[in-house]
Q: What sequence folds into this?
């Protein structure tokens, strides 16, 4: 048994620094902000380093990188919505934390546990969609269809992939959705958005962002850690 | 009896040894580096050179076997920093190892980490910058330096730790001919000042400068000896390494029956030998 | 084709020694300046105050003997996206109440909307300039030490001040390097024919480009971190404890003076808030 | 005479024109690569070699000054088919790791051929050929993760990825730097073999004059963004003084003969390789 690498702390600090740099680069140069014609102004990929930081380096690093993202988006904001630190900064602190916690909870889980969890998630989201459907019918329907689609996709994927990778993807999506949900909740509470607007934005941004986050995080982590993917080799 | 500076005893190292398929990079390597000596380690890509280098100062710890620096086991956490300060390591690509935004701060980094008191720190820094010819550039941003200057800065940042040995891990590979020559001359000067040098390379013409050469192949020591012994060794060709051009010419001429001495390994020696030979004939 | 050039020079994080008065200030007073400057930016309202702040900051840039266009270079890569965003926002977003200049279907241009846009952009540019100014005039060692020293009161509460300072200073130092890296990645992908160049569909192209960029950028950052960690370990880095410093922090009279100026600036912007300046 | 593959005339390039960071990378540079020719680009660091190589792949396109024609296409023209051009011109950049796009080596090398419409066994054979061409073992490497490769392996994979599309021209920007002699010989051999079998041309950028002397048919020397010397390799390499002035060395073999001739031995200095030097010295010694 080799002794534990005594310099692991340095690695964590440096990685946090580099992830923070990427976050600032993506927010301050606006490369990570993709303009879309919705009330929120743009979709983002700049929250991905915070998710990665949380998953790979732990909650603290996720928190720090998330703070950087919040600061960048706060200072770069052109909409009153994001000029409010309670909307722009506070929710972002939780992105990395949630990803980290979800990952820690799931990384040891086996296939069956994950299947059950996806089932529970499906039911919860469907119940939620039903609630939404009671107020705005079409939104509820869209949400339900999206939920079923995503969960079925996840289950099919689960059959093919290693549980570790699924855990990563779920943690990343959870981090991304934390961002969407909390920002929109704050925006609604603080009176920038009506509930219906929030739902529209949530569906049009939240789901694509969550999927992109999961794909990117899985790609990066499996490259860096060289951890297993069921796909053991090239297709050649 | 004083300890040798670095003693490597049947060292083996595997990457990912906790995982399902470890990759063995070094297999039973033993060698000694004496104080003030000049050692070259050559081998083709993937022969384990860099892994060996990182084992010499405890950046990697042996999977099996022992590496002792000045009698201190590199596995002993109490000696970790003493070992790293004694055996300084310069990597291939200086761009990726700079932490600071001025030459002076970058050079001082190692000494700061060792907690060297400031007056001493300043004198060490001054000395290191002077040795590497960077004194006039101390306020510059390292990213604005030329490739050769960056390589010298990487050396300066090791010298402030006052090491007894300098390990250069393919530090010349990315340099243009003139910058490479300048760097090798700097290394020669440092060697003259008493520093032990371990030069890791796959350029045969560079090993001629060394006192002792070790050839690594697939993680094992294939040949060890003086440059002359190694370059004339019959097994060398099978290891995928080329003779330096001068040695190639000399070998060819010898085969044609020219009576050249054995020690014509670099261009200058070959030219001198040929001119002597020509004079003797006429 | 200038598209690769724009990423090449992020001025934030590049130390540019000119030996000016600003360079010689204590890093702590510059860090506090940045902090107070941000407060001033956040409190400033209306066109004139913000333009005044921009002029003041550009004046500081001149005082540091830096070319203004160098400092503004950080804004350049953001320009196309900012412009697009600005147009969309002005057209479609109602904004705070004000005179409506143009109203047709979903499109409404009002004085309030335009002012919001312009002031936000000025604030963004100001922030980039201030951050750039800090890093252009302060070495990474000084920044680390400055932050560490400012955080010392919090260290008593268990906050790892040295690590926090190192994280920030590494992030600032690597900003321009990663910007360059991004350019290299775009080039490498083009060279293999991986990206199709869209001329017209800027939005789609931007989205695709951003997604294709971020994976290699992150993977490369991890590789870079590995190498840097190795180089730091090889030079006996062992955290903040027991470390000595090349740079010595001296908080002198001119630092107090500069701080007083910053405080006055904040006070001024706060006072101007209550005045009816457009 | 057949039309050149690459014809660059009076090309200038300025980075960040109109800003204080403006840097002149190229000034009135000419470069020609003929079909089935191995051309070399040498020069001290910062001479503009990489920038020039980017023009050949249309990563940069001339804006105001100069004219760049690659495989008969004017790259400045909006009608220039970039996709086609980049398939026919393979560029291996200085930092090979950025060029690897896929997770597994096999998929990465298959990237180009797939875009050309190859599939199934043809694709597999092409990938096998490309991996083996650069001296790596197909079975062992196809399933390696690109992130886990060493620097030297990454360079080889990058070269293989470019060769796999069977380009008409490959541009290697210091692609053999950091490779061991065996790896270099392998790359040299594949360039020569491809030239012989299907007339592939190559433009190599190298800081090893020995390598250029052994491999290239023609050489262009850049210094501070200008083309200062160009012509057949032997002609350029024999101008030792001019090369020394801009900080380049002559090839070792040539330097040995030069030193001998200065020392009074009547030996021909027009040699490029150790073998030629050996012959020339033998001639002189047995005169």
A:
């Amino acid at each position: 048994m080799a002794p534990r690498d005594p310099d692991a702390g340095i690695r964590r600090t440096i990685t946090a620094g580099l992830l923070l740099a990427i976050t600032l680069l993506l927010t301050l140069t606006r490369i990570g902000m993709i303009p879309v014609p919705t009330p929120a102004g743009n979709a983002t990929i700049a929250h991905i380093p915070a998710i990665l930081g949380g998953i790979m380096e732990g909650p603290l690093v996720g928190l720090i990188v998330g703070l950087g993202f919040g600061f960048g988006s706060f200072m770069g904001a052109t909409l009153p919505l994001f000029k409010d630190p309670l909307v722009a900064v506070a929710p972002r602190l939780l992105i990395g934390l949630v990803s980290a916690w979800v990952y820690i909870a799931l990384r040891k889980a086996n296939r069956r546990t994950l299947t059950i969890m996806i089932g529970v998630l499906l039911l919860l989201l469907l119940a939620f969609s039903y609630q939404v459907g009671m107020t705005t019918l079409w939104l509820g329907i869209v949400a339900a269809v999206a939920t079923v689609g995503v969960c079925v996709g996840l289950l099919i994927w689960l059959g093919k992939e290693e549980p570790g990778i699924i855990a990563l993807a779920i943690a990343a999506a959870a981090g991304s959705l934390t961002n969407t949900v909390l920002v929109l909740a704050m925006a609604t509470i603080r009176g920038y958005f009506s509930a219906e607007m929030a739902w529209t934005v949530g569906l049009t941004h939240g789901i694509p962002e969550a999927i992109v986050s999961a794909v990117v995080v899985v790609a990066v982590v499996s490259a860096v850690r060289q951890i297993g993917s069921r796909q053991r080799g090239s297709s050649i | 009896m004083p300890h040798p500076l670095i003693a490597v005893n049947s060292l083996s190292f595997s990457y990912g040894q906790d995982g399902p398929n470890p990759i063995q990079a070094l297999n039973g390597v033993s060698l000694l580096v004496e104080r003030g000596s000049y050692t070259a380690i050559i081998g083709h890509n993937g022969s384990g050179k860099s892994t060996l280098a990182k084992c010499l100062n405890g950046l990697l710890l042996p999977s099996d076997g022992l590496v002792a620096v000045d009698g201190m086991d590199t596995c002993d956490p109490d000696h970790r920093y003493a070992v790293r300060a004694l055996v300084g390591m310069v990597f291939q690509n200086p761009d990726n190892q700079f932490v600071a935004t001025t030459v002076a701060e970058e050079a001082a980094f190692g000494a700061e980490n060792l907690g060297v008191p400031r007056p001493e720190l300043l004198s060490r820094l001054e000395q290191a910058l002077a040795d590497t010819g960077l004194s006039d550039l101390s306020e510059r941003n390292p990213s604005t330096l030329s490739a050769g200057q960056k390589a010298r800065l990487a050396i300066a940042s090791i010298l402030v730790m006052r090491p007894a040995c300098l390990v250069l891990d393919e530090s010349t590979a990315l340099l243009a001919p003139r910058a490479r020559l300048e760097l090798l001359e700097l290394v020669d000067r440092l060697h003259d000042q008493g520093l032990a040098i371990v030069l890791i390379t796959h350029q045969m013409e560079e090993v001629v400068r060394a006192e002792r050469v070790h050839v690594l192949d697939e993680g094992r020591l294939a040949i060890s000896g003086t440059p002359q012994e190694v370059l004339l060794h019959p097994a060398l060709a099978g290891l995928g390494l080329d003779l330096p051009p001068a040695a190639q010419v000399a070998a060819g001429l010898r085969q044609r029956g020219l009576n050249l001495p054995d020690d014509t390994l670099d261009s200058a020696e070959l030219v001198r030998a040929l001119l002597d030979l020509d004079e003797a004939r006429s | 084709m200038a598209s690769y050039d724009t990423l090449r020079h992020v001025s934030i994080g590049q130390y540019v020694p000119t030996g000016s008065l600003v360079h010689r200030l204590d890093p702590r007073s510059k860090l506090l300046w940045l902090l107070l400057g941000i407060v001033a930016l956040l409190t400033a309202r209306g066109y004139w105050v913000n333009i005044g702040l921009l002029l003041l900051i550009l004046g500081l840039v001149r005082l540091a003997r830096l070319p203004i266009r160098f400092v503004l270079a950080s804004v350049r890569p953001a320009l196309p996206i900012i412009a697009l965003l600005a147009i969309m926002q002005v057209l479609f977003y109602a904004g705070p109440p004000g005179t409506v200049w143009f109203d047709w279907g979903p499109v409404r241009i009002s004085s309030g909307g335009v002012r919001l846009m312009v002031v936000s952009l000025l604030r963004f540019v100001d922030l980039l300039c201030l951050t750039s100014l800090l890093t252009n005039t302060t070495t990474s060692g000084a920044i680390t030490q400055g932050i560490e020293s400012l955080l010392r009161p919090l260290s008593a509460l268990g906050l790892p001040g040295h690590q926090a300072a190192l994280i920030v200073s590494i992030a600032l130092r690597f900003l321009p390097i990663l910007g360059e890296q991004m350019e290299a990645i775009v080039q490498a992908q083009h060279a293999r024919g991986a990206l199709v160049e869209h001329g017209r569909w800027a939005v789609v192209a931007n989205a695709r480009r951003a997604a294709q960029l971020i994976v290699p950028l992150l993977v490369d950052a991890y590789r870079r971190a590995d190498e840097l960690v190795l180089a730091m370990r090889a030079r006996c880095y062992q955290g903040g404890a027991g470390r000595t410093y090349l740079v010595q922090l001296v908080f002198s009279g001119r630092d107090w003076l500069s701080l007083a100026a910053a405080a006055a600036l904040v006070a001024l912007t706060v006072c101007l808030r209550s005045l009816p300046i457009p | 005479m057949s039309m050149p593959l690459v014809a660059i005339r009076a090309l200038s390039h300025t980075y960040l024109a109109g800003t204080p960071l403006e840097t002149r990378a190229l000034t009135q540079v000419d470069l020609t690569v003929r079909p089935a020719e191995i051309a070399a680009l040498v020069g001290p660091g910062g001479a503009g070699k990489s920038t020039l190589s980017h023009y050949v792949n249309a990563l940069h396109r001339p804006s105001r000054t100069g004219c760049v024609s690659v495989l008969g296409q004017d790259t400045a023209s909006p009608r220039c088919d970039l996709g086609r051009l980049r398939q026919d011109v393979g560029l291996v950049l200085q930092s090979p790791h950025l060029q690897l796009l896929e997770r597994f080596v096999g998929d990465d090398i298959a990237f180009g051929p797939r875009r050309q419409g190859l599939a199934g066994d043809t694709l597999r054979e092409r990938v096998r050929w490309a991996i083996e061409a650069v001296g790596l073992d197909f079975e062992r490497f196809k399933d390696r993760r690109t992130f886990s490769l060493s620097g030297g392996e990454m360079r080889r994979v990058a070269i293989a990825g470019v060769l796999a599309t069977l380009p008409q021209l490959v541009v290697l920007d210091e692609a053999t730097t950091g490779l061991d002699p065996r790896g270099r010989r392998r790359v040299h051999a594949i360039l020569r073999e491809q030239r012989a079998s299907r007339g592939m041309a190559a433009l190599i950028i190298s800081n090893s004059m020995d390598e250029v002397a052994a491999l290239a048919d023609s050489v262009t020397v850049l210094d501070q963004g200008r083309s200062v010397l160009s012509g057949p390799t032997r002609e350029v390499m024999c101008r030792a003084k001019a090369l020394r002035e801009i900080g380049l060395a002559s090839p070792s073999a040539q330097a040995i003969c030069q030193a001998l001739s200065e020392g009074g031995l009547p030996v021909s200095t027009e040699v490029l390789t150790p073998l030629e030097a050996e012959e020339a010295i033998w001639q002189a010694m047995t005169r």
Remarks:
- The longest strand of chain B covers residues 23-33.
